[in-house]
Write a structure and sequence with these properties.
Helix content is 66%, strand content 0%. With 439 residues, the chain is mostly helical.
Length: 439
């Protein structure tokens, strides 16, 4: 296909091709992993174990690097296939859902524990008597509680004793899948009222409160001991993750700019506030692809500069952060959020705060704090920095609410930050949009 044809092509269909290309890249990368001989055994370990936050699938015994990449490819292929269903519409939210979902394939999600949740959304489509293709985005967002599925399949209610799959486990997994699949579309529709459009991870509050309810019923209400929240992390692989991510993002940046024939359209996107923005509807396909690449490289630069350990969890955080690239996030409006985290990291060096900026929990927290980008886009760098600082303060405390079973923990936290900060900003300050209307 010529560049002229790509420019004229439907943005959604072209971005679907990009997501399929990433899926293929994950599969190819699995065969270049340093432990390729452990691909199938690593995938097997990933699938048959509880997945409560945070389990690093790169770590031998929990998985393997090659097995993790295969898991990325399988989950990515499943959702790419759903994008070809009739009535499936590819928007910025679809790109968000795809990269967010595959991002968790290295710590908490696998090809098995997503199946009951996809089934739940299918049941929802039957209840609504509408084509399943219309709800592919919700199928992806429903996977936020995938660790709950693994928990009931392999451990619940015998905390600490992993057992084989039982009829009770299957029944509970299907029940949770249907409940979540039917509830998430309704909750996501009301979620913007909670954060007023300033949390790009719109499904975060929805998944957070729903998981909080299910966790309370499963454990506190029934008097069952809940598993402790504990991270299990490996040493990571800095070179492998950097080579894969920088190559993929670099190609996207170059291809996007070539398609557009320069930087002009991308600069328009780059300066967007990100508030209630679907870049796929506002900007060219080239600009969207370029932002995937430029924003991805920006994320990698940050994690390298702060000295992050490139575990599977960190690699997942990269893609979870990248996911908003077509839905409101750019390097320009995310930078103040990063700055807020760096300020808190400097306070850690002074002995004031408890977590270093490159601690694993904070590395993951930053990826979801980036969902607050519309705050800096609309209210400026100081507001964005404060939002990042607040997110840093809350993100390590929120898992206790849902037991570590909500993968969207940071997106849930971002919603809470919005609930606290946005009314104050609206009360005392004018947003960029309001100032533009008065000009």
């Amino acid at each position: 296909m010529s560049i002229q044809a790509i420019r004229k092509a439907d943005v959604g269909k072209t971005l679907r091709a990009v997501m399929c290309a990433f899926t293929a890249a994950f599969l190819i990368a699995a065969f270049f992993a340093p432990d390729v001989g452990e691909m199938l055994s690593g995938l097997g370990n990933i699938v048959i174990r509880p997945a409560q936050l945070t389990k690093d699938y790169f770590k031998p015994g929990l998985g393997s690097v090659s097995g993790t990449m295969l898991n990325y490819a399988l989950v990515g292929a499943a959702f790419c296939a759903l994008m070809f269903l009739p009535e499936a519409k590819i928007t910025g939210a679809t790109v968000l859902g795809f990269f967010l979902t595959v991002g968790f394939c290295s710590y908490g999600m696998n090809i098995l524990n997503i199946l009951p949740l996809i089934l739940g959304v299918y049941v929802y489509s039957l209840i609504k008597r509408q084509p399943f293709g219309k709800f592919v985005n919700f199928a992806m967002f429903s996977t936020a509680v995938a660790p709950l599925i693994s928990e009931v399949l392999f451990q619940y209610p015998t905390t600490g004793q992993v057992h084989g799959i039982t009829p009770l486990g299957i029944g509970l997994a299907l029940l949770i899948g249907i409940v979540v699949g039917c509830a998430m579309p309704a909750l996501c529709a009301h979620s913007p009222g909670f954060h007023k459009g300033y949390d790009l991870y719109n499904a975060g509050p929805a998944a957070g409160f729903l998981c909080f309810l299910i966790y309370a019923v499963m454990y506190k209400t029934l008097g069952i001991e809940a598993p402790a929240i504990a991270a299990d992390l490996g040493e990571g692989n800095r070179i492998y993750v950097n080579v894969f991510c920088c190559t993929a993002f670099g190609l996207c940046a170059v291809c996007g700019l070539v398609i557009d024939g320069g930087f002009k359209e991308y600069f328009r996107l780059f300066k967007d506030s990100g508030y209630k923005s679907d870049f796929t509807a506002k900007y060219s396909v080239g600009a969207n692809i370029a932002n995937i690449g430029v924003y991805g490289l920006f994320i990698m630069l940050y994690y390298n500069l702060i000295g992050a350990t490139f575990t599977g969890t960190t690699m997942g955080a990269v893609f979870c952060m990248l996911c908003c690239c077509c839905n409101g996030a750019t390097p320009l409006n995310v930078f103040p959020i990063m700055l807020g985290y760096v300020v808190m990291g400097l306070l850690n060096r002074a002995g004031v705060t408890a977590f270093a900026v490159n601690a694993q929990a904070i590395v993951v927290g930053l990826c979801f704090a980036s969902g607050l980008a519309p705050i800096s886009g609309e209210y400026g760098i100081i507001a964005g920095t404060v939002a990042g600082m607040l997110h840093y303060c809350l993100v390590t405390s929120v898992p206790a609410i849902h037991g570590g079973f909500n993968l969207y923990n940071g997106g849930f936290t971002a919603g809470i930050v919005c609930f606290i900060l946005v009314p104050i900003l609206e009360h005392y300050f004018k947003s960029k949009s309001q100032r533009r209307m008065k000009a």
